[in-house]
Amino acid sequence: MDSYMGSSYTGSSAGSTAGSSKWSGTPSNYDCKPKTLSDYELKPSTFPNRKRKPTVPPPREEDPKSPREENPKSPREENPNKTKLRWSSAGRDLYDSGKLLWTKLLLKDFQDQIAANPKHFFYHHPDGNVIKEENPAFGEDLKEGLNRRTQVVFLGFRYLLYPVESDSRRFDFATFSTRRIDIRKPQYAHFQPKYQVLDLDRKFKEAEEHWAQCEARYLIENVLSKYELPPTINKVICFGLGNDITRDFETQSQHPAALTIREYLEEKLGNNIRLLAHDPEYTSDTVEVLKRHGFEVDMVGIQGFIDVDENSLVLSIKRCARVKQVLADIARPAVFITVPFHEQDLHWAEIDWIKLQSDPTGPGPLEDLGIVSRRRWDPDTPRTKAMFDEYYDAGPWTDGE
């Protein structure tokens, strides 16, 4: 990576951004009035040495006290609806061998399959196998994409270690799957538009006006100004900024923050900067409003990853999809603004979840393993750690970091 730029990664809000990744921090109070950079607790950060792995997952504070805590020897009640997963040592070996879980060629191939709408999809797994699955959208009119559409769901490291138990074992080594959405069905009601486009556009403009008066807006510009940005940056790619653009400051500031970043880059670099937004949860009213404000929108979930390259600034400040995991395999954007690295995520893989789940008198009430594996949508992995190590080494440092 060029020595004049390191990636950015830090806090979990729109006001959080990152420089050459030698510092990190999370806003203690996400509101519209951070006074100075110190309010965001920016501080030097290094990856700590790996600590002794835990033998049991730590309990969450919000978990209510269960009857088993009163009587730890009482048997655990079996949940008949829990996801059946199993440990895959072959999956761990495949990951440790360095085999890529995703490549741009793989993603482009599957995107082309969705566009062609064939009778069957062919999933190319990283172990070399090709899995044939029926396409539930076969024969449908793809022009009806806002009512019915195919979404790609990225799986990743934890699914590789604990695939879904099935007779066919077709999910072994799967790194993504698909689901068919029909917003006219009750279970997908949250995909239905909630506003008239003109009303939502008015609300979005109000959110922009609110954002323009916030200190957080100038914090982003202040942080970006500390670094010698690559002059070749030509696009801002956003992942998972959310469909709710009106509810509160945190949700309604995501897209205005992206517009601020584009505006800053265009003024500083003199380039025309594309602005791309990718979120499978977008509804048709949100899509129309975002397009009016200069966003290119994708709801399938693949194109954004294909577009990421060394000329990109990536904005992914919510724990959605497996953005960090996918990028660790396929690309190194010039700037990466995302949530902080979590060292404790690396310990997850060292826990024998199957054994703990099957122990009738084990320590603490264990949840459905499927829920445990999905609790963090984009958990850190050995490869995301290696990626951030690269960004740490890129530098340079600037005064006042």
UniProtKB/TrEMBL annotation:
- Residue ranges for the region (Disordered) are 1-85
Mark out the compositionally biased spans (Low complexity).
1-25
- Specify residue ranges for compositional bias: Basic and acidic residues: 32-42, 59-81
- InterPro entries in the cross-refs: SRR1-like (IPR012942)
Specify the superkingdom. Eukaryota
A family per Pfam: SRR1
Residue ranges of domain SRR1-like in the record: 224-318
Q: What is this protein called?
A: SRR1-like domain-containing protein
Q: Which organism is it from?
A: Xylaria hypoxylon
